[in-house]
Specification:
By secondary structure, this protein is an alpha/beta fold. It has seven helices and 15 strands. The protein has a five-stranded parallel β-sheet with strand order 2-1-3-4-5, with helices on both faces. A five-stranded antiparallel β-sheet has the order 10-9-8-12-11.
């Protein structure tokens, strides 16, 4: 069973969420809180795996509360699903690696998809702990989704769908097989967060998803490029070509 805590200052919101969670057989709601201070005390005592968290709380907001919990060395932060009536904090939720960001009022189907993501992240953390005991006290999780606003929407884009990422001044361009988006980040920032077994930087301006690489082509003049499965050609600089050769040699 997955132990969960509900933190929301609105009684009706907690009641509705609890009712929806009855349809999730492996979710056990072990407590409810109306303030951030109550939530900090309860999470510290019970140590639940999952926290449904409203952002606007009477004494401090949800982000400040998470910051307070994160400095407690004896406590592993629970997986967090934000439940809020405002869409303006979605990017900040991405920065703190929230599982999902649910805008009220949300449906049972939308809640279920968030819980599925939470289960997947818990399974991934368990696998990481099994394969590397040195990470038992703090597994470093890789970025699995990008959350950002685009055309009046909040998009939750799995990084596994990205073919390549390119730098454009103060932005990065995220490219899937059919669409591309501009996100205000640096390429170096994303490179640190992405799984290096899946993504490789091949140029100072480009990162490619290795699962979509078809071949690496070197021309007679020494210039190289990465050819993706959809035929796109990504420039590869000579300084990064060694990294690609090392990756293939190790596989």
């Amino acid at each position: 069973m997955i132990q969960a805590v509900l933190a929301d200052d609105e009684v009706l919101a907690r009641q509705k969420l609890r009712k929806l969670l009855r349809e999730e057989p492996d979710i056990d709601v072990v407590g409810e809180c109306a303030t951030a201070s109550e939530t900090i005390q309860l999470v510290s005592a019970i140590k639940p795996q999952l926290l449904f968290l409203d952002i606007r709380m009477p004494d401090m907001d949800g982000f400040d509360m998470l910051a307070e919990l994160s400095i407690r060395k004896d406590l592993a932060l629970p997986h967090v699903i934000f439940t809020t009536a405002s869409d303006q904090h979605a990017l900040q939720a991405f920065e703190v690696n929230a599982v999902d960001y649910l805008l009220k009022p949300f449906t049972a189907e939308r809640l279920h998809s968030a819980i599925v993501r939470a289960r997947d992240q818990m399974d991934a953390r368990d696998r990481a702990r099994t394969t590397d005991d040195s990470h038992r006290n703090g597994v470093t999780s890789h970025l699995t989704r990008l959350v950002f606003k685009s055309g009046g929407r909040i998009l939750f884009l799995p990084v596994s769908e990205l073919l390549w990422i390119g730098a454009e001044e103060n932005y990065v361009r995220l490219c899937t097989g059919t669409e591309s988006y501009l996100l205000r980040h640096t390429l170096a920032h994303l490179e640190e967060k992405l799984d290096s077994s899946m993504f490789l930087r091949v140029h100072r301006s480009f990162i490619v998803n290795l699962q979509y690489v078809k071949e690496v082509r070197t021309m007679p003049d020494g210039e190289s490029s990465v050819i993706l499965v959809n035929g796109q050609k990504i420039a590869m600089s000579r300084s990064y070509r060694t990294r690609m050769h090392e990756r293939f040699a190790a596989s």
